[in-house]
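Re: the request from the purification team.
They wanted to know what the chain is likely to look like in 3D before they choose a buffer screen. I agreed to run a prediction and write the result into the notebook, where they can find it.
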Amino acid sequence: MSDLHRTALIKRVARECGVSRAVVERVLHGTVAVLADALANDEAVIWTGLGCFAWSERAERVGVNPQTGERLTIAARRTPICKVGDSFKRRLLGRGEAGV
């Protein structure tokens, strides 16, 4: 399996949509900026057909240092997550909608 990095993604989207790479790059950059701003303002971003970008809250918990066996408190934290939508999953698994 190979990875699709940013430059290759931009080229493929430009070819798929029939627009220049510069246009795709500006749109992707703008999309990432809007996603980041929304999350920074505690807004979830729901992209029907793709998924949901939101925050995950982890409660404070007790952990164990595997080297010493010492019990320690792991602080509560927030982390951004992306939950893949059902229609996108079905497309990846070959059981559903052709378009996003």
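For the purification team: DSSP finds three helices and five strands in the chain.
Please add any questions underneath this entry.
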